[in-house]
Known about the structure:
By secondary structure, the chain is mainly alpha-helical.
Amino acid sequence: MKGLLFTYTLAYGGTFVSLFNPFWGLLAYICFAIIRPESLWHWSVPAGNYSRIVAIGLLAGWIAKGCGDWNFGSARPIAFALLGYWACIVASAIFASNQQVAWDYVILHSKILLPVLVGLTLVDSEKRLRAVAWVIVGSLGFLAFEGNLDHFLGGYRVRFDGMGGMDNNSFCIAMVLGTGVAFFLGLAEKNLWLKWVAFAAAGLMAHVPMFGNSRGGMLALCVLGAVSFILIPKRPAHVAALALGFVIALRLAGPAVWERFETIFSAPEDRDDSAQSRLDLWADGWDVMKTYPMTGAGPDHWPLLAHTYGWPPGKEIHSLWVNAGAELGFLGLTFLSGMYLITLWKSGRFALSRHGDGDWTLHTARMTAAGLAAFMVAASFVSLDALEPPYHLLILGGGALRTNDIATFGFATNQTWTQEHSQQFQVEIA
Length: 430
């Protein structure tokens, strides 16, 4: 009953409020995109277009308010890569053999990409950065709580069924991404109560890949820890917080977890069927890329081609990057990877440009860079092009860059890196 009340309140209340302030509609949409109420509370929430209802209100309010601010400043390359990726999906669909499948894919990704574009035009202040970060952490943290509760009660829901409309691998990778956001959110918060809420959410999320049986998630956790160490201010309290998280992770990772994780690095003769099949799938995906280099085989078309390579019909390719190349061609792969790499590079560069705690833009850049680094490694092992939390990090990263532009120059500019900033960056790296 509580789930139903929450869903209706957020869907209709969020829609109404977004007509006057589209940013609130964006927050409601991000929440729904993560928790998927009709999946999470399937016994009480009837199937419905709750996200679509919020999206209509969001777009109506956004258009009424002049479609936001399109002066992206330093985030301009991110927006350009996003639009390029979107255009490649449409172009690939035009030449696809199965038009129904292709255009269903276009519609699905338009629902994902359009709110991200809207978010890039709306997030331009520290207050809004903080709000987006807390919605991401709150939504993912709630799912992590539900997953941990099921695990400690003896269930295997995450491992076998996933959660929130995601399978176990996608869910675990979303949790790792959320761990990075929650950890740096905890460092950023001045309110002690909120600080510990964020750290608790990070701990719950970090535990999920260990009982979710996701090797990609476990590897992503290792990457997240390494990148976080590079990005955090080297103050005793911050290093201690990261070290404590590392110790807790080691304690929670039992023998079964380590045994599963070590199979990633197995010699060819010792690989299990799952690991070996991924290598074979990637080889076949590369062949498709060479066969259809310009526009790919078509959106969501690899499952239709799998049987021609000896795989069961509908078999996924188990790599976001290989999958994108096979279905959208080399240009689509370039825009997709560029969308994340540009955000990672710009956020990481900004995060390393200053010492100390800094402001919310700096904290946001750190959480964005750490989360995306972990995601990009994990995405090499799973086809999760429709997983939405990574797209939300584009809003955080792009918003941090725009906010810094405005705070520094009074308006968004693509010249954030002045000569003074560049010299300071070089000295700190050295």
